[in-house]
Write a structure and sequence with these properties.
two-stranded antiparallel ribbon, two-stranded antiparallel sheet, 4 helices, 42% helix, globular
């Protein structure tokens, strides 16, 4: 199982991770052995320790059988339900702005 395979299998379930090299990795940078799991998006939504354990369980299930489409569909539904329980909080003052891709300034609506 490579980091790339894990990244793609988890993405199919709605779980975002990044393929990542691990110390002394013998694989190439674009096909590394490991993954990186970040939690800022989860804590921003207010997810607690129990939610993190649940997500960890899903990750374990998927990585045991990354090609199991039936399992991925089931977990994708569970991920959606968890996300409904912990919605993304609004960004103050962002209601009337559109943003460019990451790293760009917001675009203000034209007032004509």
């Amino acid at each position: 199982l490579t980091g790339r395979t894990a990244e793609l299998a988890l993405a199919a379930c709605g779980i975002t991770v990044n393929k990542n090299m691990i110390p002394f990795d013998k694989r190439k940078p674009m096909d590394p052995s490991g993954i990186r799991i970040g939690t800022p998006a989860l804590t921003t939504r207010g997810m607690d320790q129990q939610a993190m354990k649940t997500i960890g369980g899903w990750i374990t299930e998927v990585l045991k059988t990354p090609d199991d489409e039936k399992l991925r569909r089931k977990i994708r539904g569970q991920v959606s339900e968890l996300c409904r329980q912990y919605p993304v909080p609004p960004i103050p003052g962002a209601a009337n702005t559109r943003c460019r891709p990451t790293g760009s300034s917001p675009i203000r609506p034209r007032l004509t």
